Amino acid sequence: MLERALNVLDRGFSALSEALVAAIVLVLTAQIVFRYVFNSSILWSEEVATWCMVWTVYMGAASLMSRWQHVYIPMFVQRLPLSVRPYVIVTAKIATLATCLLVTWYGIVVVDGTYNLTSQSTGISTSWIKLAIPIGMAAMAIFALSHVVADLRAIRRGDLSRFETYGDLNLDLAPAGAPDSPSGDVRKG
């Protein structure tokens, strides 16, 4: 049931990110049309597009965290013996979780702070824009915690297969027949 809730949360953040990107495209397209066709300008377009971008970054980052698809360089982890590798991976994920929690806390401080302004073009408080920080980072912390728990369960069961291919390229993304695709796997041991 928890996994189902995390999947719904992930789909929600992913859909919100996609909708915000579409909004950015629409707002900026409207700005271009108004500027070059009607020789007028939409005063709030750049500001709203920037705010949408901030929310897109944090919502998209949360969605990426749900699948642990953030950029990382596992070169050194892959060289560790399989008996040690899980503990290094879990330690790194716990550090990621701690960072997410710290930024969540700081984001709450920023949103609750007295240094929020009101936009002159829209009249909206910047605290609404800054709210993306604690929401996105809290979601990232939830997803990171789920990965730590899953890894600890695998270690407890003695299932090290979860850590054997940690950091390998996602072979499902390669086109069929490509050297790194499942049908043409030529990885070196």
Question: Can you put this structure into words, describing what you see?
Answer:
It contains seven helices and no strands. The chain has 189 residues and is mainly α.
Which secondary structure elements does this structure contain, and how are they paired or packed?
Blueprint: H1 2-36, H2 45-66, H3 75-79, H4 85-112, H5 127-130, H6 132-157, H7 161-164
Helix pairs in contact: 1-2, 2-6, 4-6
Describe the structure concisely for a colleague.
This protein is mainly alpha-helical and 189 residues long. Helix content is 66%, strand content 0%.
Rg for CA atoms: 21 Å
| Assembly form of the protein | single chain
Instruction: Kindly state the percentage of residues in helix.
Output: 55-70%
Main sheet summary: none
Number of domains: 1
Beta fraction = under 5%
- The SSE string, one letter per element, is HHHHHHH
Termini separation: 38 Å
**DSSP summary: helix tally:** 7
Report the principal-axis shape: elongated
**Averaged pLDDT, please?**
83
pLDDT < 50 runs, ≥5 residues: 171-189
Please state the structural category. mainly alpha
- Count every beta strand, where a strand is a DSSP E run of 2 or more residues: 0
Describe this protein with a few key phrases:
mainly alpha, 189 residues
